[in-house]
Specification:
The complex is a heterodimer of chains A (327) and B (253). Chain A has 327 residues and is of the alpha/beta class. Chain A has helices at residues 65-72, 95-100, 116-123, 131-141, 155-167, 185-200, 212-215, 236-244, 257-265, 288-297, 314-322, and strands spanning 19-28, 31-41, 44-45, 51-58, 80-85, 88-89, 101-104, 173-177, 204-209, 221-226, 229-235, 246-250, 270-275, 278-283, 306-309. The longest helix of chain A has 16 residues, at 185-200. Chain B has one domain (2-249). Chain B is an all-alpha fold and 253 residues long. The chains are: A alpha/beta (327), B mainly alpha (253). Chain A binds chain B through residues 70, 73, 75-77, 92-93, 95, 98-99, 103, 105, 107, 109-111, 114, 118, 122-127, 162, and chain B through 1, 3, 96-98, 100-101, 103-110, 249-250, 252-253.
Chain lengths: 327, 253
Amino acid sequence: MCSAHPVGILREAASPGHVESRGLTRRFGRTIAVHPFDLDLGPIEGRDGKAGAIIGLLGPNGSGKSTLLRMLLGLVRPDAGSARIDGVALEGDGTAVRRRATYAPGEIAMLGEMKGAEHLGWLLRGRERDASARATALAVELGLPLDARVRTYSHGMKRQLLLAAALAPRVRVRILDEATEGLDPSRRGEILRRLREDAAGGTTILLSSHHLGEVDRVCDVIVFMNQGRKIAQESALSLAERARRLVRLGFEEGADMRAVEAFFARQAGARVRIEGSRASVALEDGDPAAFLARALEARELPRPRAAQYGELSLAELYREIYGVEGC
Amino acid sequence: MGREIRICLVRALAASLVLEAMLAAAILFWPDFQANIPAILKMVPGKIMGGFVDAIVRGGASSYVVLQHFFKGCHMIGGATAILFASGAIAGESHRGTMEIWLARPVTRRRLLLERYALGAAAVAIPIFATSATIPWLCGFVREKVDLAPFLLGSAHESIFLLALYSLTFLFSALSSRPGPIAFGMMMFLALQFAFYLVMEATHASIFRFADLEDFLAILATGGLEWRVLLPLLLFSGACLYASLRVFARRVP
C-alpha cells in the first residue's frame, strides 16, 4: 500500500535536505530488524515558497524504527543497501553523514557528572563553533538549569537537553528518535512548535514515535513501520482524508461475516477487512455517508449493530486497515 | 576532549599518590633493611626471593629501589590501574548506556578510540615516570645518591610492559559490554601470573618475565633498554590496538 512517490515530495536526486535509502537491511542474529527499506523523503514546497518538512516515522515498539535511524546515521552498519543524507552517501562509520545531520537518540543515558552547559558542549563536539551558543540559548529558553549536574535532571529535562543539542547546529536534516517521549503535554507542545518553526526554515526533520497521536498533527508525511517493514508512506493530508473515508460496522455475534466480506468485496472502490464480528471498509473516494446508506439498504448484508464513519484518529485508521496495535 | 583529559589527569594523579606513598615508605625503610640483610637472607623462602635479596646485596640502594618501585609498586598498582582504566574504556560506555551519544557526534570512531586508548595509556604511564623522577630526591633522605636516568629508562620498560596488559584489556573492553567481569578476570589472570613467577618450575611461563628484576638490573648496569624484550611487547600492544579498532568499527551502540 506504499505510495512510491508521496504527494508534494521534491524529486531531485541528492538534493539538499533529502533522506534516501535503497534496500537498507539489518539483521541481529536470525532476526531481521529492518527488511530492505527504501526511503526518498525531503523538503516540501510550502505556499510561501520555503521548503522543509517534518516526516513522522511511526510504528509500535520493536518495529525497527530506531535501528533504521541508527543505520541512516552510520551508528549501526547495514548488512545491505545504501543511504544518502543531504546528498552525502553513507560510507564507513558515517561521520560524513553525521556532519550533515543532527541526532537525538531515543535512549536517555547521559554523563551525569557533567554540568548541563558542559554536557551541551560535549554533545556538540565536531559542530560549528556557534552551535554551542545557540544550544545554550535554547536550553535557557526551555528553562534548563545549565549550571546543575545532569544527574540531578529529571527524565524530561535530559530529553530537552538532548533536543537542544540536536536543534542548535545549522544542518538541513535532523533525526529525532522519540523526541517527545517523557515530556509533559505543555513541554511537548512547545517542542513540537519549535520543530514546526525549524522545518519552516528549510530543515527536514525525521521524527520517530511509537505514539501516533503525539506527532500526527505536526508531520507533513508519515512513514509507517511494522516488524521491520515499511507498510505505508503518505502525506498527512492524504491520511486524514482516508481516515474520513473509513466506515466501521459492528455485527451481532454469529453474524455471517463471510457474507459481509463478499458483499463489500463486490462494491467498487471499497476495501474490506474483517476482524471477528467487525468490518472496516476503506473507500477510495466518495461520500462515506451515502455509501453507508446504500449498504444498509442492501438485503444480502446482515443487519449491523453499529456503524461509524468520519470520526477516526490516524491511530485507529492504521489499526483498522493494517491490524497493527500499539500506536 | 576536555572531559577525557580531565579524567586522565585525575586517574594519573590518584595512581601517582599511591605509588609515591609506597615508594617513600620503601626508601625510608632502606637503612633498616640494609642493617638486617644477613637475617633476611636466612628467612627468605624460595630461590626466586633469595635471588632478589642477593641482587640487592650486589647492587645496593639502586637495586633495592628498583625491586621496591618497579617490581613491587608498579607491577601491583600499575597492573591494577592498567586493567581498571582499560576495562571500562569501551565496555563502560555500553554499560552506562552512553555509547550512543558518544558515537553520535560527527567524530570518526577511529579517532574516538585512539583518543581513549592514548589517554588511558598515559594515565598508566604518567605515574610511573612521575614517581620515578622523585627517587633521587627521596634517596637523599637516607643519605644515598642515585642517578635519575636509569630509573627513567626503567620507567619506560615498565610502561611498555603495562601497555601490553592495558592493550589486551582494552581489546576485551571493545568486545564486551560488561567492564566488571573483564576487570575481575584480568586481575585473576595477573595474580595467577605472579604466582607462576614465584615458582621456579613455572616461572618461565609468567608474563612477569617480560619485566623481570634482571631486566631492570641490566638497565642499571648498561644504561640502555632491553629491546629484545620490549619489541615483542610493543608488537603485541599494536596488534591488540589494531584488533580493537576493527572490532569497534562494527560495534553496535
